[in-house]
Write a structure and sequence with these properties.
Helices cover 17% and strands 39% of the residues. The protein is α/β, with parallel strands linked by helices. The chain has a four-stranded mixed beta sheet, with helices on one face. A four-stranded mixed beta sheet has the order 5-8-7-6, with helices on one face. β7 and β8 form a beta hairpin.
Length: 132
């Protein structure tokens, strides 16, 4: 076994937009590779066949699915972010919630100083935590 990587499948041809958005929000993050569909291939030309990106050193892989499925992202799998400051947590939450939905609004739930859980505008679930 070489390695294990989290994988995100986007159904609305927005994998590249999501990667650009996520890497712009979290420092020390970058898109590391993108392979796009060309003309006369099975997916829409220019969409992502496969791409990789890192968020704070954690690698993710993603695609634009050219097959429409009866499922999408679920909050039972989320990206868990441990923040260093309340300002960092608030800023990230405010940006990720735009066009998304709160699952657990920012608050003190007893297990950390501050915590929030949301689905972003792409449907990806995030847990943002400020430890005690």
């Amino acid at each position: 076994m070489e390695k294990i990587t989290s994988f995100l499948m986007f159904q609305d041809d927005n994998a590249e937009e999501a990667m650009n958005y996520y890497t712009s929000l979290i420092e020390d993050s970058q898109i590391t590779s993108i392979v796009r569909y060309g003309p006369n291939e099975s997916g829409k030309e220019g969409t992502v066949i496969q791409a990789t990106f890192t968020l704070k050193g954690q690698e993710f892989m993603c695609i634009d699915s050219n097959v429409k499925h009866q499922f999408s992202f679920t909050p039972s799998f989320s990206i868990f972010v441990t923040c260093d400051t309340e300002e960092e947590l608030d800023n990230l939450y405010d940006k990720l919630i735009e066009g998304g939905q709160a699952l657990m609004p920012l608050g003190d739930y007893g297990f950390s100083k501050k915590f929030g859980w949301l689905n972003d505008r792409f449907g990806v679930s995030w847990q943002l935590n400020l430890p005690k």
